[in-house]
Design brief:
It contains nine helices and 41 strands. It is an alpha+beta fold. The chain has four domains: about 110 residues, 2-Layer Sandwich (Copper Amine Oxidase, Chain A, domain 1); about 110 residues, Immunoglobulin-like, CATH 2.60.40.3500; about 130 residues, Immunoglobulin-like (Sandwich), CATH 2.60.40; about 180 residues, Aminopeptidase. A hairpin with a 4-residue loop joins β11 and β12. The protein starts with a helix and ends in a 6-residue tail after the last helix.
């Protein structure tokens, strides 16, 4: 009994203690009373924690002799800011100064000051926040207490802050040039890498923490191109990225606080297969360079393969003349690149150069060398001539009427503005027997599939090309000379080219080759899958008759619904100088017509229908065909 009573007493004692602890814990979990140093709710983090609580403000005595203007370079922009210089390299800058606000804006940062709590708040993208308090050497960095080298101060009743204390938050490089007494606040370049876009462009991307500016230069010995990312500092050591054609693309810190500021340099080797095109960056903190493959995009001609029998170069003081003699008619595509890459390319498809490769070193100052080589071998031989121009010199390519097998290329000492003159063109020396020339344009191709019916596995680019090839055979039998903008599944310009450039190339082929007729072949599509039939479009008034004849023959040949001729300002027919029509052969979006388009006999009927219309149009207009 005695022991039982003792146990009861112990249990009561334990219960009383447990109740006391729970009450104490409940009281301690309640919010503490605000201290004088944290009178505002702004001094707390989102979790309710006050990083400044328990910290003591540091003393500050103003030395008025240390207030003076200091020179700054902020992302390459020079300015002068009234500062308090603690010591050379360490400053306090006025928070409300316009240049300081612009400095922060360059790094996508805003700042505000609360007089009551004496707290300065920096805000970056995605609501990242840095908070400092006047005279305190700690800061609240996204809810964490961080030491800062120099506390913010009040001078002349205005808040002053130190770039040394906020530079890491805004991701800026902060340096001091003792010799020139100049302070630099530049963007970090975090990385340089290769990226392949959805449209299969291969792009060099430089990503920075602030606004980036660039320039592109051409250097020699060896010849290479450099992209200078101005007013930037590389985050890390020099390194390189590998490109399958160009090899190693290197980037490093070229200058640090030099005559032109800090520069990160990207070195791109020169290649006759790749050209460098600066792109509009996705954001101000990016620099993007398109490594565009240089492919022969000259139109396909019905010309036999020829050979170069002679090539001579004549030099005068202000003129260089190249005379090329061939075994027969040829087609030429010429292409001028923009500064600083002033090279001028001349591509000749269907051509063989017996010497395979040769470089002519010239005495001329404006064109030191000419290179000619067998760029592509059989079965589609192509010769490429490269004029290594020092500047955008005037180049003229002429055919000789007296000797049609000769081509003369004149390079003058005078220059042109490549942005205001044609940068690409086509030339045919002559046609074997003259006659009526037609340019066929199979719609889409390469990286652009056009309309697609995935259920039946039918692509517009494939059907349009097949109909065009069948039409080409029919036209040749009739004695026409046929030019095609493409004869395979490829882009007319280059993979991933902008729509305007791709479309412009198609109409330019017809214009440069002085075709008599232009016909673009397409397959229609609609969101309403019950829509079906054939239609032909025209734009210019001299197109209408051509469209009418094609449509009137295409309907009975295919047996499909007649949707008539319609006027639309489609780019390819609007910009063609000759009568032009755009044919829409049925609807891929309609199940019945998609099944028909998969049949070879139906595509042949469509080609015959267009052929009959062209025959009737030529007869009506009195156009002569080749015998």
């Amino acid at each position: 009994m005695k022991y039982f009573r003792t146990i009861i007493i112990l249990l009561i004692f334990i219960l009383i203690n447990a109740f006391t602890v729970s009450v104490y814990a409940g009281k301690s979990s309640s919010s503490p009373s605000p201290s004088p140093s944290s009178s505002s709710s702004d001094s707390k983090t989102s979790a309710g924690k006050d990083v400044f609580s328990g910290e003591k403000p540091t003393e500050f005595k103003i030395d008025w002799s240390k207030i003076d203007s200091r020179k700054f370079s902020i992302c390459g922009v020079k300015c002068s800011i009234p500062c308090y210089e603690i010591k050379p390299g360490e400053l306090l800058v006025p928070l409300n100064d316009p240049d300081v606000k612009r400095m922060l804006k360059s790094f996508d940062t805003t700042v505000s000051y609360d007089k009551d709590s004496k707290i300065i708040t920096f805000t970056r993208a995605k609501n990242k926040i840095l908070r400092m308090k006047i005279d305190y050497n700690v800061a609240d960095y996204i809810g964490q207490k961080k030491q800062i080298p120099i506390p913010p101060r009040i001078i002349n009743d205005k808040p002053y802050i130190s770039p040394s204390s906020f530079r890491k938050f805004i991701w800026a490089s902060y340096n001091y040039d003792k010799k020139n007494k100049l302070y630099y606040l530049d963007s970090w370049v975090l990385d340089v890498y290769l990226q392949t876009t959805k449209r299969k462009k291969v792009v060099i991307v430089a990503k920075g923490t602030g606004k980036l500016k660039y320039r592109i230069l051409k250097l020699r010995h060896p010849t290479r191109f450099v992209v200078d990312v101005m007013n930037s500092v590389l985050d890390g050591k020099a390194r390189s990225i590998h490109h399958p054609t160009l090899g190693e693309i290197r980037f490093s810190q070229h200058e640090l606080m030099g005559k032109e500021g800090s520069i990160v340099r990207i070195v791109v080797p020169q290649s006759e297969e790749v050209e460098i095109v600066m792109l509009k960056p996705r954001a101000p903190n990016y620099v993007e360079v398109n490594l565009r493959p240089r492919k022969v995009s000259a139109p396909v001609q019905d010309l036999p393969v020829q050979k170069i029998t002679d090539l001579k170069i004549y030099e005068k003081k202000n003129l260089v003349t190249i005379i090329m003699t061939t075994t027969g008619p040829i087609q030429i595509e010429w292409n001028r690149l923009l500064k600083p890459d002033n090279r001028f390319f001349i591509d000749i498809p269907g051509m063989v150069y017996p010497q395979r490769k040769k470089t002519f070193k010239l005495k001329s100052k404006f064109i030191p060398k000419v290179k000619i080589a067998q760029f592509q071998p059989k079965p589609n031989p192509t010769v490429r001539m490269v004029l290594s121009l020092e500047s955008p010199n005037k180049v003229t390519i002429e055919t000789d009427n007296k000797n049609p097998k000769q081509v003369k290329i004149f390079i003058g000492n005078d220059t042109v503005d490549p942005r205001k003159t044609a940068r690409k063109g086509y030339i045919v020396t002559y046609y074997p027997s003259g006659g009526l020339v037609i340019c066929l344009d199979p719609g889409h191709g390469g990286s652009d599939p056009g309309a697609v019916n995935r259920r039946y596995g039918v692509y517009e680019k494939t059907i349009a090309l097949d109909i065009s090839r069948r039409l080409k055979k029919l036209l040749k039998k009739e004695g026409w000379t046929v030019v095609m903008t493409r004869n395979s599944d490829r882009d007319v310009t280059y993979p991933g080219s902008p729509d305007y450039e791709e479309l412009a190339s198609r109409s330019r082929i017809a214009n440069d080759l002085k075709a008599h007729v232009f016909v673009s072949v397409h397959i229609n599509a609609s969101r309403k899958n019950w829509v079906k039939g054939v239609s032909t479009y025209w734009c210019k008034w001299n197109d209408k008759t051509l469209a009418r004849y094609i449509q009137s023959s295409l309907v009975p040949a295919t047996g499909r619904k007649n949707l008539g001729i319609r006027r639309q300002p489609f780019f390819v027919i609007r910009h063609s100088k000759m009568p032009a029509a755009l044919v829409e052969v049925c609807f891929l979006s309609n199940s019945e017509e998609a099944k028909l388009l998969k049949k070879g006999w139906f595509r042949q009927k469509a080609a015959e229908g267009i052929m009959n219309g062209l025959r009737a149009y030529a007869h009506k207009k009195g156009l002569r065909k080749r015998k």
